[in-house]
Amino acid sequence: xxxxxxxxxxxxxxxxxxxxxxxxxxxxxxxxxxxxxxxxxxxxxxxxxxxxxxxxxxxxxxxxxxxxxxxxxxxxxxxxxxxxxxxxxxxxxxxxxxxxxxxxxxxxxxxxxxxxxxxxxxxxxxxxxxxxxxxxxxxxxxxxxxxxxxxxxxxxxxxxxxxxxxxxxxxxxxxxxxxxxxxxxxxxxxxxxxxxxxxxxxxxxxxxxxxxxxxxxxxxxxxxxxxxxxxxxxxxxxxxxxxxxxxxxxxxxxxxxxxxxxxxxxxxxxxxxxxxxxxxxxxxxxxxxxxxxxxxxxxxx
Length: 301
What we know:
Layout: E1 2-6, H1 10-21, E2 25-29, H2 33-40, E3 45-47, E4 57-60, H3 65-73, H4 78-81, E5 87-90, H5 96-108, E6 112-115, E7 118-119, H6 121-127, E8 130-135, H7 138-143, H8 145-151, E9 152-159, H9 163-191, H10 196-203, H11 211-221, H12 232-248, H13 254-264, H14 281-286, H15 292-295
Parallel strand pairs: 1-2, 1-4, 2-3, 4-5, 5-6, 8-9
Antiparallel strand pairs: 7-8
């Protein structure tokens, strides 16, 4: 199986190297020269956009739906350059409406489509331990199963084209909400004298636990590392996509709207380039402020 990975950022680059290590014939492509040079230095065969090879699979790992559209449609795009019967796999987190539109054009051109947004970050991409949400038909999934197994710890087929991206947006909405709610819970406990690690141990033994409390807080927040590989700007983009998807379905989700607002209230703190776990900074800082004013509060209410 010949695979071309388009988009050699932290995710795409690591996926390309993982697939190459698994024995696939992999070529990488990126419009950014620095990305191509970085992957070439790690032993990956890389090409410029005008030298895109014929492949069995084109794996896209790009920032937005519009980047995906450009790669597929812009002349000469994959609609005209990809061999008939090849598979376009969109591992980006994309707008499901755009994905369904593009899937129709891809199919009409004699190609196959699979949306396959991922979770697990650069580490999961580098170790072949990603989680993948698949939107497409079962025959296409069966065709690329060896690739999926090399990339992921688990993949889940959730429906037709666009479905993977819908569920990915739902997942990221929950992650964004859990970061805020868990930070508030930890801050409340800290103001009461409970250490954050002790609070998290308690939460993780009960029904309030989540991947955020079990992974994000110890791995990136309390450690002070903030190096998950996923930026605040990308999470903000995904939240806007989730909000727009809900609106298109006629669902005025008030809590979703509130989460979107909280993530956009101050575009500089955190900035779009900051690790997304920094959204907890302001909340957790409040837990360490002087609590003397609280000691004299009227507790008879």
